C-alpha cells in the first residue's frame, strides 16, 4: 500500500539517468577540452585511451583501430600491455569486432570463465577478472575498440562510469574520424604539391602534333615498364630528350642516367668504354675504372646511334644484355650489373640486320619496346610552336636585347622546308636570329639568309629570296623565258618542297597544294615549269 506508483518510479529512474548523464558529462569535460582542436591522430588516440583507463580505474588498456573497410583491427596504442600480450589481444579483437560492429559494449567481471577471453594466456597468467571492450562507432561504421582490464575480482563499473564510457566512445569516434579526415586532406595536399613541384617528365618535348602526342602517351606507358627501349628517328628529332623523359617517368628515376654516342666509340676502345678496366689491365692502367654499364648500375644507359657499332662490339654488348654481367678489361671476374638500356638510331635496324650489319639477336633484345619519332617535316604544325618556344627559351641571349618574332609569311615558308637536322636545326636557326637579327619582325629574307649561312648552298634554303604570296606559299620570281630562266638553286629548292608535299599527300595534288598553301593550279604550273627545266 505504501509502494511507489509506476509513473513515479519511471520518473525517478529518468531523473537518476539524467543525473548520471550530467555527472558523466562532467567527468568527460577534461577529455573534450583535451580533444578540442586536436587533429593529430596519434595525439587523439593517446588522449582517448588514457581517459578511458582513468575513468574505468583499470590497470591496463589498448586502443585498436580498424582499417578503411573496418574489416580488421590493429593495435594503435597500449598502456602496460607487453608485446606478446598485444598480439593475443589482436587475435581476440577479431571476435570483438564482430560484436562491436553491432555497437555492443562488451563487459565481463569473470574473464577466467568467459568463452570470449578465457583462452587468452595473459588472462590466466595475470588473473584478469574485469575486461571491457568499448566500440568506437561513427556513421554506422566501427572505427575501433578500446580494451581495458583489471585483476581485482571486486572491480565493477558503476552506472555513472558506464554512461561516461559510452559518451566517451561517441566523442572519441568523432575525434578519430576528424583526425583521419584531416590526415587524408594533408596527404592529398602533399601529393598535389608534389605534382606541382614535379614537372611533367615529358613536358620538355614541345608538340601539338596529334601523332607526336600519341607517341608521348605511348612513351609514358612504356616508361613504367622496366624493359629495354629502342628509339628510331632521324638526327635531331629529339631522341635523347625522349630517353631522358622515359628515365624520369620510369621506375629507375632515382638511379643514374648515363648517355653515350656510339658513333664516337673507337672500335679498339669499346670494351674499356663499356666495361671498364682493372688495374694493370693494359699499359697505363694504373688504377681500376668502371665502364658505362657500371656507372649506369640500377639506372638507365642511353646508347645513341647504336647502329654505328661494329659487329664485333655488338656481340660484346649482346653478352651484357643477355647475362647482366660485365668483365672489365684485364680482370678475371664478372661484375653483375642491373641496367635498363634505351638505344637510339637514325638507321633502319631491321634493314641493317638483313644486310648483315646488325646482329639479329641484339636487335630483338633491345627493341622490346619500340618508338619511332617522326621528322619535323612530317609534323610541320609544330614548327610555329617550336619557333616561339625557342625564342622564349633563348631570349636572354639576344644581342641586342629585345623581342624577335617570325612573321606569318616566314612561319608559312618554314613549314614548307624539309629540315635536315630537324628540331636541332630549327633551334640553331632561332639562336642565330636572336644573336644576329635586330629586334622586331623576322621575315622570309632573314630566315633564308640565316639558313644559307648556317647550311651553305643546299637545296634546303635556296640562294635567292623567294616571294611569298598572301597564302604564305613560296612563289619563284618569274623571269622572261619561262622556267628555264629560274636559277638552278631556286628550281631545286622548289623541287624539294613540292616533292615533299606530294609525298606527304600520297601524290594527291589538291592535298599537296593545301600543304604548300597555294592553289592547285599554281602547283600544276610549278610542276610543268620543273618538268620543262629538266
UniProtKB/TrEMBL annotation:
It holds the Pfam family AAA_lid_14. Keywords: ATP-binding, DNA-binding, Nucleotide-binding, Transcription, Transcription regulation. SMART domains: AAA, GAF. Residues 466-490 are annotated as: Disordered. One of its GO terms (biological process) is regulation of DNA-templated transcription. InterPro entries: AAA+_ATPase, AAA_lid_NorR, GAF, GAF-like_dom_sf, Homeodomain-like_sf, HTH_Fis, P-loop_NTPase, Sigma_54_int. Residues 205-435 form the Sigma-54 factor interaction domain. The keyword Disulfide bond does not apply. One of its GO terms (molecular function) is sequence-specific DNA binding. CDD domains: AAA. This is Sigma-54-dependent Fis family transcriptional regulator.
